[in-house]
């Protein structure tokens, strides 16, 4: 198990290094002069030169990349041109909104999808199966920002159960904070739950057709007992794959959802940095998101090994 984990960690580390090269090249090298882009076409040459010096753009691309990479490794993500504060401080402030939101949404999507997929697979071809599959098809087809606006219209405007946006801060208490994140989390979770439920159903149906399931049924187990004791665990591998990918989708979707609900999270920070041409923030945030996705991929690989012992011997 340790050897398997080490190999996966080395592979993902190389992926992270390659991603850093691509991100640095796309943002700082290929477009030309980042300082001129940030200040606009009609900027004063003296102001451009001063900004280049402030951002450390006077050295060679290789030296700048190594400085940037070394700073990232030590927690120095640079200084925001717009906010005039270290990017690390901005990330620390916004992380306590985006991370609970992603965890909340992932918990909701899993809690909805696994029972729905299991229920549909256990009643394949019946009214329950058709109902679940129809609902999941609707969930996949409808974008999450439309769900978000519909939730605001019904639960905030009409029923007045939740606020239409904003975040009171965790210092206001756990319940107000979770209440403010509920509608955004539901808007993020529903499309992902639809995808996960369909994957769960397909994986269970395929597993139920295996010989060991028929042998278990022949020994007297009911269909439900065979699913719970044997089929469910073996159907989890494709489900774990989708769960890992959903983290990336939740981060990408949060950029839109956080703007719909005016949440001060990482997604809104990225959107503001792009509109304000704050390339220092954009570069650091994209790298952090890539790191988060790669870390989740590594954890999913470890979960594979825990579910399927055959992977530990490779």
TrEMBL record:
List, for all copies, the residue spans of the domain called ABC transmembrane type-1.
Answer: 95-300
Residue ranges crossing the lipid bilayer per the database entry? 101-122, 134-157, 177-197, 235-257, 285-307
Location(s), subcellular = Cell membrane
UniProt GO MF annotations: dipeptide transmembrane transporter activity
What InterPro entries does the record point to? BPD_transp_1_N, MetI-like, MetI-like_sf
The answer to keyword Transmembrane applying to this record is yes
Q: What CDD domains does UniProt report for this protein, alphabetically?
A: TM_PBP2 (cd06261)
Provide the membrane topology annotation.
Multi-pass membrane protein
Instruction: Write out the similarity annotation.
Output: Belongs to the binding-protein-dependent transport system permease family.
The name under which this protein is listed is: Peptide/nickel transport system permease protein
Source species: Rhodovulum marinum
Q: Which taxonomic lineage does the organism of this UniProt entry have? A: Bacteria, Pseudomonadati, Pseudomonadota, Alphaproteobacteria, Rhodobacterales
């Amino acid at each position: 198990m340790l050897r398997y984990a080490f190999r996966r960690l080395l592979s993902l580390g190389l992926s992270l290094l390659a991603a850093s090269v691509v991100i640095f090249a796309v943002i700082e090298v290929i477009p030309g002069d980042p300082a001129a882009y940030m200040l606009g076409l009609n900027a004063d040459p003296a102001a451009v030169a001063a900004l280049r010096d402030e951002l450390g753009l006077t050295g060679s691309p290789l030296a700048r990349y190594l400085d940037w990479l070394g700073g990232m490794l030590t927690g120095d993500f640079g200084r925001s041109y717009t906010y005039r504060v270290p990017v690390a401080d901005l990330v620390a402030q916004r992380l306590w909104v985006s991370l609970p939101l992603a965890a909340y949404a992932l918990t909701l999507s899993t809690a909805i999808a696994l029972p729905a997929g299991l229920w549909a697979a256990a009643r394949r071809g019946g009214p329950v199966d058709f109902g679940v599959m129809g609902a999941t098809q609707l969930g996949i087809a409808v974008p999450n920002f439309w769900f978000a606006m519909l939730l605001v219209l019904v639960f905030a405007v009409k029923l007045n159960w939740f606020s239409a946006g904003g975040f009171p801060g965790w210092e206001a208490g756990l319940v107000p904070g979770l209440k403010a994140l509920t509608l955004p989390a539901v808007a993020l979770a529903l499309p992902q739950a639809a995808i996960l439920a369909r994957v769960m159903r397909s994986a269970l149906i395929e597993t139920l057709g295996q010989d060991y399931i028929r042998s278990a049924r022949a020994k007297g187990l009911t269909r439900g007992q065979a699913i719970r004791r044997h089929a469910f665990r073996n159907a989890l591998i494709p489900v774990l794959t989708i769960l890992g990918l959903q983290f990336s989708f939740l981060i990408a979707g949060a950029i839109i959802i956080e703007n719909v609900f005016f949440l001060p999270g990482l997604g809104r920070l990225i959107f503001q940095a792009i509109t304000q041409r704050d390339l220092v923030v954009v570069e650091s945030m994209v790298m952090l998101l890539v790191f988060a996705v790669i870390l989740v991929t590594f954890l999913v690989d470890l979960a594979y090994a825990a579910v399927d012992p055959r992977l530990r011997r490779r």
